[in-house]
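Hi all, posting the design record for the shared folder.

TITLE: backbone redesign
STEP: 1 of 1
STRUCTURE INPUT:
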């Protein structure tokens, strides 16, 4: 193969990984923001299903039916969102894979408008937002060869620790480079989620019922920019 072709492929691959990384961090920040908003407003995680599963298990043994109903609802809707997002990404009739961006953004915008004029009960709120978070989790599923989850951080921290351990233990230079790259990606992903959760309380106090419009518009703009970039390439 011609050297120029090889260099072009390597460059394209490097650019693709950088795009995946930036997008994953951006989505993690939004997920942290929305998850913290859900915790403050509805006392429920809308993307952290490990916490909701723990709450469900504890509630089942103590007959706390309110928590049981809430946990089952948000977990079910989150799974349904992942199922829907995955189906959209695999649907051959859909040529524009940016559709998930617009669907998630549309759901959050529609919810924010309705919630501003009408009181939406907590169960309906967590169902709608939980579904959108499940869909958003299917947008970026890997950075290079490293599998990632942008909506929750338990797996991210697990993979971060594993890659760091393998980085310390291996003597192979190529493996060291790969593990180091993976660890950096995962660390930035965790920081992104943490940052989103950190700023949520401040913006919630300022924007009130319009607080979910911020991530909705950011997701829409991001989808448009990526679509435009893909069209140019």
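Okay, here is what came back for every position:
SEQUENCE:
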């Amino acid at each position: 193969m011609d050297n120029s072709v090889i260099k072009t492929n390597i460059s394209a691959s490097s650019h693709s990984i950088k795009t995946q990384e930036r997008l994953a961090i951006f989505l993690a920040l939004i997920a942290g923001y929305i998850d913290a908003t859900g915790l403050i407003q509805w006392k429920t995680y809308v993307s952290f299903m490990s916490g909701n599963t723990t709450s469900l298990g504890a509630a089942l043994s103590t007959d706390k039916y309110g928590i049981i109903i809430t946990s089952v609802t948000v977990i079910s809707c989150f799974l349904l969102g992942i199922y829907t997002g995955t189906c959209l990404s695999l649907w051959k009739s859909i040529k524009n894979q940016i559709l998930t961006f617009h669907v998630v953004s549309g759901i959050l915008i529609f919810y924010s408008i309705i919630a501003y004029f009408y009181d939406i009960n907590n169960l309906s709120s967590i169902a709608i937002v939980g579904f959108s978070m499940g869909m958003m989790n299917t947008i970026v599923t890997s950075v290079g060869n490293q599998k990632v989850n942008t909506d929750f951080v338990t797996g991210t921290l697990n993979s971060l620790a594993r890659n760091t351990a393998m980085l310390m233990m291996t003597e192979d230079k190529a493996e060291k480079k790969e593990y180091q790259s993976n660890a950096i990606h995962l660390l930035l992903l965790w920081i992104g989620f943490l940052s989103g959760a950190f700023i949520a309380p401040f913006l919630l106090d300022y924007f009130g019922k319009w607080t979910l419009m911020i991530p909705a518009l950011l997701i829409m703009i991001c989808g448009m920019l990526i679509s435009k970039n893909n069209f140019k390439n």
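COMMENT: Residues 158 and 186 are 10 Å apart (CA to CA).
Let me know if anyone wants the other runs.
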